[in-house]
């Protein structure tokens, strides 16, 4: 019997992730994820789907050393048959991704990316901008926590880029974004609109407050505000 290891994602999100890899045509060869946590969520389900496909390799990035060590042991225990398809990468995504891209050299094609790292909404933007040039038309991307702070910039930014088609699923309270690349690069107009939206989001009062206040105090202050002010400050998003 397979060992049960801890992981996040709802049952519906695990199904969407597995099916995206199983039904992809051509089958993904190069898969990267940010934020493995303990391995029983995205990492396990990606590896099982690759194993079922009979091809593909996953590079999984994790920034917390204790979690990283436990994840390695968990994957070895839960899916030893698929462990050869897995290369763990320790560190922060903004440093690991450029190094990984440089090591792979020219001709790198990232067929599938899963973004589920830290809560700072700038991270998914940067991870996407680093990976996008290496994702071919037809390549897929998923990002978790689309309806909370992690996805606060990325969801509207990607929706405005016309070289990707994206949607957010109500697959859990926090939401999962799924997207497919449909053209090599964005039109100038769509890139300008997405960049302007990103600048507006970063200038929201709640974002300017974020680095200045401890999050507990910020949450308390925001909860005390009238509903109308709260929505104006938060831009309709939950912190
Ligand atoms: C929400 S958990 C990931 C859950 C996992 N995908 C699953 O399905 O079970 C986020 C993980 O990302 C890691 N993390 C946070 N910021 C990161 C970063 N900048 N780069 C890489 N990993 C990061 C955290 O240590 C944590 O383990």
Average predicted local confidence, pLDDT: 91
The beta-strand count equals 7
Assigned CATH superfamily of the largest domain: Vaccinia Virus protein VP39
Q: DSSP strand (E) fraction?
A: 15-25%
Which class of secondary structure composition applies to the elements? Answer: alpha/beta
Encode the helix/strand succession as letters.
HEHEHEHEHEHEEHHHH
The third-level CATH topology of the largest domain is: Rossmann fold
Can you characterise this structure?
The protein has 239 residues and is α/β, with parallel strands linked by helices. The protein folds into 2 domains: 11-192, Rossmann fold (3-Layer(aba) Sandwich); 204-234, no CATH class. It has 10 helices and 7 strands. It has helices at residues 11-22, 42-53, 65-78, 93-104, 121-131, 154-160, 188-202, 205-209, 215-224, 227-234; strands at 30-34, 57-62, 86-90, 112-115, 140-144, 164-169, 176-181. The chain has a 7-stranded mixed beta sheet with strand order 3-2-1-4-5-7-6, with helices on both faces. β6 (164-169) and β7 form a beta hairpin. It is globular. S-adenosylmethionine (SAM) binds at residues 7-9, 34-37, 41-42, 61-64, 67, 92-93, 116-118, 123. Residues 7-9, 34-37, 41-42, 61-64, 67, 92-93, 116-118, 123 line the site of S-adenosylmethionine.
List the helices and strands and how they pair.
Elements (H helix, E strand, L loop, with lengths): L10 H12 L7 E5 L7 H12 L3 E6 L2 H14 L7 E5 L2 H12 L7 E4 L5 H11 L8 E5 L9 H7 L3 E6 L6 E6 L6 H15 L2 H5 L5 H10 L2 H8 L5
Parallel strand pairs: 1-2, 1-4, 2-3, 4-5
Antiparallel strand pairs: 5-7, 6-7
This protein binds S-adenosylmethionine.
């Amino acid at each position: 019997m397979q060992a049960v290891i801890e992981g996040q994602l709802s049952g519906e999100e695990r199904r969407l992730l597995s099916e995206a890899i199983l039904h992809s045509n051509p089958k993904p060869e190069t898969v990267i994820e940010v934020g493995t946590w303990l391995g029983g969520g995205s990492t396990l389900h990606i590896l099982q789907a690759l194993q079922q496909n009979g091809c593909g390799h996953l590079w999984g990035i994790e920034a917390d050393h204790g979690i990283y060590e436990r994840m390695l042991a968990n994957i070895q225990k839960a899916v030893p048959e698929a462990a050869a398809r897995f290369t763990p990468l320790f560190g922060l995504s903004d440093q690991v991704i450029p190094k990984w891209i440089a090591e792979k050299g020219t001709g790198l094609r990232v067929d599938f990316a899963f973004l589920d790292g830290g809560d700072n909404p700038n991270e998914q933007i940067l991870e996407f901008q680093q990976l996008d040039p290496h994702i071919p038309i037809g390549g897929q991307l998923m990002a978790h926590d689309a309806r909370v702070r992690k996805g606060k910039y990325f969801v509207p930014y990607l929706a405005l880029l016309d070289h990707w088609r994206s949607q957010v699923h109500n697959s859990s309270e926090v939401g999962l974004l799924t997207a497919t690349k449909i053209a090599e690069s964005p039109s100038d107009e769509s890139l300008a609109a997405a960049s302007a939206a990103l600048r507006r989001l970063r200038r929201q009062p709640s974002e300017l407050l974020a680095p200045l206040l401890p999050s507990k105090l910020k949450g308390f202050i925001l909860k005390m505000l009238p509903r109308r002010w709260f929505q104006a400050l938060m831009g309709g998003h939950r912190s």
